[in-house]
Design goal:
Length: 155
């Protein structure tokens, strides 16, 4: 797992478990865990993760906006997929170097009944449909991701 992905996962965990009202508090918590980043990097991470500022009874708080986060990630995934090929039983996705595991993880997180699972290498993802009858449906789903026209929902 890349350092960026680890850092962003930790940011999500902190936001889900602690009341964070400003960037400085988040930077201090990350520094305690030997994650030393700049405020600009944190701002980019917040944007990529779909973090928004909301108002609560206790004051302002940063939270994950899952809808916005899903749209941002869907756009990125579309850029990372280079091609899709298939036979009667499996689908092979070619990605940018080093991005296959992220694409595989994203597809797994869709929780689509038509997809049993994925296997991600460095630049190749194997998608295993639940039935050979659903290969075309899954291929269409992946091609929609490539065109950044998501007709799918994160679950």
């Amino acid at each position: 797992m890349s350092a960026k992905l680890k850092r962003q996962n930790r940011i999500k965990e902190i936001l889900n478990n602690k009341f964070i009202s400003n960037h400085e508090d988040m930077l201090k918590l990350l520094l305690k865990e030997d994650i030393n980043i700049t405020q600009a990097t944190l701002s980019r991470d917040f944007a990529e993760l779909g973090v928004i500022r909301t108002f609560t009874d206790q004051g302002t708080r940063y939270v994950l906006n899952l809808y916005e986060s899903g749209k941002q990630i869907a756009r990125l995934i579309g850029f990372e997929i280079l091609s899709v090929e298939h036979n009667e039983s499996m689908i092979v996705i070619r990605t940018l170097a080093g991005r296959a595991q992220g694409v595989a993880h994203y597809i797994d997180r869709l929780n689509r009944v038509e997809i049993l699972g994925t296997v991600g290498g460095d630049d190749t993802v194997i998608v295993i449909p639940n039935s050979h009858k659903n290969v075309d449906k899954v291929v269409a789903l992946i091609k929609n991701m490539m065109m950044q026209q998501p007709d799918f929902k994160l679950k």
